[in-house]
């Protein structure tokens, strides 16, 4: 049919776009698994405290690969959509499996990419809990990709073999690569500082230290008699803010790296968590539950693993940029640890409990 005569509707184009789309999905899936494991670790999972930029890179890759997948997915669907009009609809059991995998793959992919975009913009237009749904559908998406590749493997091998594509099809592919590059550069400044001046669509392009959740939004009220409790079984040690400031102080340059993909570095000052534990007669390297003044929030508590409590760079921060913490940055004190998601860098800390 003449309406389907475009050079883009060709298995050689589809296979080449699909190869890069598969790479983008694989990177997005694997880095997403890491992020999920850090936030909801199973018993066997461990996450190192070095290098300090590790989570910044993995989560940045997660978001950037997801953004790159959008133009790639649209180009791939454009190259194959005439197949939707083929008759008969189902020719064999294998053909039915192929069509079913495409339907599931397309639905799961669009769900992941669209909800992911809304998440980085912190616009939640749905009633479900995003992390749980995003994680579950990711498994559906990657499973349908594997089924689709297995079914189409003979076609893929044939399409990627020489002599390649002609000039008309190369133009379509170049346009696809250009659109993908523009999408990445226009948004990657949220993660890559060198691109912040040109990333016009970056959701966090400011050089200042952004805040996702303000003290007002968390309904934080710091009592006049605030003190920090360090609990180890029956032993309870209490520190006022003045007493924390009187302990040996340290500074570290560490990033806040958010699950939305943005990150920003700052110089933090405060008490090393390892030193604070020693002051209480506790050997560093133990798991610690961190509790916030926030009541009822999803991240009002977090667990700081022993790999981080034993790392001298992990701070109970009292200052940022040589100034006392503001309420939005966690006053009177907050946790700052290397390679941790921002949601686990608990603010408004009131209690540390050895587990």
TrEMBL record:
Residues 223-354 form the Oxidoreductase molybdopterin-binding domain. The chain crosses the membrane at residues 20-39, 59-81, 102-121, 133-151, 172-195. CDD domains: SO_family_Moco. It holds the Pfam family Oxidored_molyb. Keywords: Membrane, Transmembrane, Transmembrane helix. This is Putative conserved transmembrane protein. The lineage of its organism: Bacteria, Bacillati, Actinomycetota, Actinomycetes, Pseudonocardiales.
């Amino acid at each position: 049919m003449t309406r389907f005569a475009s050079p883009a509707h060709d298995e050689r184009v589809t296979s080449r776009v699909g190869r890069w789309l598969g790479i983008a999905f694989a990177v997005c899936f694997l880095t997403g698994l890491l992020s999920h494991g850090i936030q909801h670790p199973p018993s066997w999972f461990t996450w190192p405290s070095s290098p300090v930029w590790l989570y910044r890179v993995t989560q940045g890759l997660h978001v950037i690969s997801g953004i790159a997948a959008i133009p790639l997915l649209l180009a791939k669907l454009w190259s194959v959509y005439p197949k939707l009009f083929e008759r008969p609809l189902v020719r064999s059991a294998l053909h039915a499996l192929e069509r079913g995998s495409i339907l599931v793959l397309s639905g799961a992919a669009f769900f992941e990419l669209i909800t992911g975009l809304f998440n980085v913009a912190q616009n939640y237009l749905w009633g479900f809990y995003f992390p749980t749904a995003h994680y579950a559908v990711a498994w559906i998406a990657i499973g349908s990709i594997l089924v689709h590749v297995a079914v189409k493997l003979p076609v893929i091998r044939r399409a990627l073999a020489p002599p390649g594509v002609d000039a008309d099809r190369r133009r379509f592919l170049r346009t696809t690569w250009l659109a993908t590059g523009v999408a990445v550069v226009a948004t990657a400044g949220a993660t890559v500082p060198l691109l912040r001046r040109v990333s016009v669509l970056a959701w966090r392009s400011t050089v200042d230290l952004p805040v996702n959740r303000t003290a007002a939004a968390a309904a934080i009220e710091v009592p006049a008699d605030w003190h920090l409790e360090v609990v180890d079984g029956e032993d309870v040690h209490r520190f006022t803010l003045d007493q924390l400031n009187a302990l040996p102080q340290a500074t570290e340059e560490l990033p806040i790296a958010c699950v939305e993909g943005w990150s920003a570095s700052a110089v933090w000052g405060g008490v090393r968590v390892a030193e604070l534990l020693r002051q209480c007669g506790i050997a560093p390297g133990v798991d610690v539950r961190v509790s916030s003044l926030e009541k009822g929030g999803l991240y009002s508590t977090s667990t700081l693993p022993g790999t981080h409590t034993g790392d001298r760079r992990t701070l109970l921060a009292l200052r940022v940029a040589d100034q006392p913490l503001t309420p939005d940055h966690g006053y009177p004190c907050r946790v700052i640890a290397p390679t941790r998601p921002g949601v686990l860098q608990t603010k408004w800390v009131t209690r540390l409990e050895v587990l």
